[in-house]
Amino acid sequence: MTAITFIISVVALACGCAALIIAMRESKKQTRETIVRVEKAPVEHPFIYDDEKQCYTLDGSLEVTGSVTALKKGGKA
């Protein structure tokens, strides 16, 4: 009876260690995937350029009293 209990406890310990190693590897994978390189502009420029998406994002709020237009490259709508 003591031998069976010992074998079961060793197997449980091995499974626990394997689960811990797998969880640590998955955590490192998720950390690598969420890193995004963002370059901040000077303070007088409220836009942030995201190099990965190749676009600017407004950092803050924008009050518009007229209209907002997005132009394609070259200045044509």
Q: What labels describe this entry?
A:
three-stranded antiparallel sheet; 1 helix; single chain; alpha+beta; 77 residues
Q: Explain this structure to me?
A:
The longest helix is centred in the first third of the chain and has 32 residues, at about 1-35. A hairpin with a 6-residue loop joins β1 (about 40) and β2 (about 45-50). The protein has a domain at about 30-60. The chain has one helix at about 1-35; strands at about 40, 45-50, 55-60. It has about 80 residues and is an alpha+beta fold. The model has no long low-confidence stretch (mean pLDDT about 75). The termini are far apart. It has a 3-stranded antiparallel β-sheet with strand order 1-2-3, with no helix packed on it. The chain contains 1 helix and 3 strands.
Helix and strand topology:
Blueprint: H1 2-33, E1 38-40, E2 47-50, E3 55-58
Classify the beta-strand content into a percent band: 5-15%
Helix and strand content put the structural class at alpha+beta
Shape: rod-shaped
Report low-confidence residues grouped into runs of 5 or more: none
Compute the number of helices. 1
N→C terminal distance: 82 Å
What is this entry, summarized?
This protein has 77 residues and is α+β, with helices and mostly antiparallel strands. Helices cover 42% and strands 14% of the residues.
